[in-house]
Amino acid sequence: MSQLSQALAQSSQRNHELLSILAQTDYAGPALKQNVAFISDLQKQVSELDKELKKLHEVTEDERKDHVKYRDSTVKRFAYKMGGQKSKAKFASKSEKEEREFLEAWQKEREAKERREELSRALENAQKDKQHLDGDSTRHDQAQRELDQLYNSIFTGPTPEVPGEDQMENTVKDTQQWAQQCQTRLRTEKRAMDDLQSAKSSLTMALRDMSDARGASTWDMWGGGTFADMMERDALSRAQNNLTQAMHHIGSAMRAQPAIKPLRAVNIDQGHFLSDVMFDNIFSDMAQHERIHQSEAQMQQAAEDFKAQLAEQVERLRDADAQAKQASQTLEEARSELQRIRAEAFERLVGGGYGGAYGGSQEYGWQASEAPPAYT
């Protein structure tokens, strides 16, 4: 008996046990993912309903107070009584209206409470299911890790006795490398996207600041005086700070993704203290207003260019995400196929030897000689 056959014979029982655990718990991973999403949705519904209940309770209390106050009002009752039959009928109608509004509000609150109880029961059951699924998912992961270790200890390296195993083992290694490259690219594109989103926020604030500066400048031309000048200069200073922050974030994004271009040049004229404040007049105000207008136009154009770059990065991120998912799926299929080949080696041993050459998985369509797609 060869060394491989001895190793297979010694591990046959444990292999069978681990495969049985995997078969029993394969459902747990997908089911747990659905369960977590369901719990999250229920918790969101409960939170929203709690807010609604609070408002409904306030309405119910207000209506109850109005109803009780009107019903028990001796003065109103006496006044209507003194007015004759029409007044009595009017009092009764008004009293019925207050009671009806109270009952309607109470009914809405009651229905909301019943929905809240139903959601609570559903959430409690879902959380109980999660405990069970967590246990089975953990068992599945532990069994898979142990099976991987078992197979690696037996099959790592050349195993010509098992047709197709060496080729598929190399395919798994190549696919794993490709998947890692895809994940690296995805993380890089995400980092660049995060930086561009931060730059977008800074640019938005800078544009708002320029609008504030233009408004203060307009006020200054109409006699706003020193206070308008100070507001204008403060807004321009904020705009410059936010623009600098945007450029910093874009620079960080460029280091992650060289395809990103720098922000179009924007010159924010901060004004001149002597002419704008010390020697303030309509002509200096008009000149500064024009400079602000030009700076704002430059920033708007830069923002438009940036918007196009942001859209391009969205596409790059979407492409990287799709490729990473494809690589992950391909790797999972390759690993499953390798595990199938190795599991069949145990089965053939139990069945009395190795028979036939391996020609690929019918389930996944793998061929032992296939390599993963090229990384792009």
Structure characterization notes:
The protein is an all-alpha fold and 376 residues long. The chain has two domains: 22-155; 179-329, f41 fragment of flagellin, N-terminal domain (Up-down Bundle), CATH 1.20.1330.10. The protein has seven helices and no strands. The longest helix is centred in the middle third of the chain and has 92 residues, at 165-256. The chain is flat. It starts with a helix and ends in a 25-residue tail after the last helix. 23% of the residues are buried. Residues 74-80 and 352-372 have low confidence and may be disordered.
Mean pLDDT: 79
In this structure, how is the largest beta sheet organized?
A: none
Please state the structural category: mainly alpha
Distance between the termini: 47 Å
| CATH class designation of the largest domain | Mainly Alpha
Work out the radius of gyration.
Answer: 37 Å
Q: For the record, what is the CATH homologous superfamily label of the largest domain?
A: f41 fragment of flagellin, N-terminal domain
Indicate the multimeric state.
single chain
Low-confidence stretches: 74-80, 352-372
Please bin the fraction of helical residues.
over 70%
Shape by Cα distribution: flat
Quick summary:
The protein is mostly helical and 376 residues long.
Q: What key phrases describe this protein's structure?
A:
single chain; 376 residues; mainly alpha; f41 fragment of flagellin, N-terminal domain; 2 domains; 7 helices; 84% helix; 0% strand
